[in-house]
Amino acid sequence: MIRLFSHYVPRNTLFIALFEALLLALSVYLAVYISAGGLHGDALSIRPEAALLFAGVMLAAMLFMGLYGQASVEGWTGVFFRLVAAFALGLSMLYGLHLAVDLSDWVAGPAPISAAIALAAISAERLVFSRWRQAAVLKPRVLVLGTGSRAAQVDRLLRASTAGTMPRIVGFVPFKESDHHVPSRYVLELADGESVVDLVDRYKINELVVGVRDRRAGGMPVDDLLACKLRGVKVTELSSFFERESGQIRLESLNASWLIFGEGFRQNWLRTVMKRSFDIAASLALLVVTLPVMLLTALAILLTMGSPIFYRQVRVGQGGRHFSIYKFRSMRNDAEANGAVWARSNDDRITPVGHVIRKLRIDELPQIINVLKGEMSFVGPRPERPEFVADLEEQIPFYDARHSIKPGITGWAQVRYPYGASIRDAQEKLQYDLYYVKNHTLFLDLAIMMQTVEVVLWRKGSR
Asked: What residue stretch is flagged as signal peptide (predicted)?
């Protein structure tokens, strides 16, 4: 993982994106070369900005299609179909730009040829990558100190992951732990006179993850850790390991001191001004783009369900303040006659039009009003209802930390976790929200917005 603008990005994802950007740019020059019949004529007259524009638009389309997200479990065939869809979307975006800005010098001819060349090259490159991404030689070798319940979370994370970017766990070293919570075949007992440094040398370890719960009274081998650090071996605290590898701050491994003394949670006037400017610009742009859809939705609701078109509901915002959120009405008027309840799968309170607008996330669009009023941000933790917040704060530690910033229309938890409708779901989503609260930057906001497009296009997690 590489920490880029406070956000962790897999090294291979970054490498692939840069390599594919180069392939996309070169495909433009090759297309012009083919169109001109060789090096004569206009073969070398293409402007660099045209190649950069083509590469940028196609990379954005590939990101929208989830090709730079978590490793796909669909196999290479699924990736290929996503590539085809991405290039079709990218060409549509280019021709849309052509309507606004004259790109006739190269869009009409070279762009389709460039797309065909790039599609073939990137498909071949992805095929090679799919065969090599699981190679052990490409993964850092990790040794976990501890075999208790905290250390066992590492084993569960790796078992649950379908990504090929996870490090290789060589083993777990017990320290004053009588019960092992990890598979016995992974436990590496220290022999008499043997130290952690010896294990690091023997197994060619690149990183040590400290998962020891009790670090007092000799519970942690400080001298060994220092010796490994001086030898260039990375030493990582368990909470930091989860933050890096899963994009979460795991509650089970979390210490309040790590939150207090660690990096992140930065708030200052410049960040506030930048985020507010970004919110206004993004909301106005979304309003312009989606206005026809919103008008058709309002008409459909009015004709099939009658008034009201909009639904207002009290939510908890920054600092615990209450505000009214705006949504298109997707449920019957008597949906909460018996009080507030969690939404559930196949909820019979949802109307036929409501099912459609929820699947496509259209019901969330009126929240643009909340963003423009300053009650919400474009990106942030989803605001919850006061009735649920009171229970969640009692049952889930650090839950109120998500109220330190403005809630958002979309967020890190929304693009990484399916729709939540229980205490357990709220706890899982909080772990993503804490990651966002700790690391939020304009770069992460842009990444979340692009992944939100993928979620909408592929209808992930809607209910």
From this structure: none
Question: Cβ neighbours of residue 329 under 8 Å, at least 6 residues apart?
Answer: 301, 305, 308, 309, 310, 311, 354, 363
Cβ neighbour number for residue 265 with a 10 Å cutoff: 15
Asked if 352 and 213 sit in the same domain, the reply is no
> Cα 20–21–23 angle (5° rounding)?
60
Residue type for position 152: A
Give this prediction's pTM.
0.81
One domain for residues 108 and 153: no
- Coil, strand, or helix at residue 314? strand
The reported pLDDT for the residue numbered 212 is 79
Nearest of 410, 414, 412, 416 to residue 377 by alpha carbon: 410
Asked if residue 161 belongs to a domain, the reply is yes
pLDDT in tens, 267-326: 788 888 999 999 999 999 999 999 999 999 999 999 888 888 998 999 999 999 999 999
Within 10 A of 5 (CB to CB), how many other CB atoms are there? 12
Given a cut of 90, whether residue 7 has pLDDT beyond it is: no
CB 241 within 8 A of CB 209: yes
Q: How confident is the model over 343-400, as pLDDT tens digits?
A: 655 666 788 888 888 888 899 999 999 999 999 999 999 999 998 898 888 888 889 9
Residues 165 and 160: their CA atoms lie apart, in Å, by 13
240, 161: one domain: yes
The answer to the question of residue 462 being in a domain is no
Structural domain boundaries, residue 298:
269-457
Kindly state whether residue 368 falls inside one of the protein's structural domains: yes
- Cα 454 → chain centroid: 11
Whole-angstrom Cα distance, residue 6 to residue 266? Answer: 11
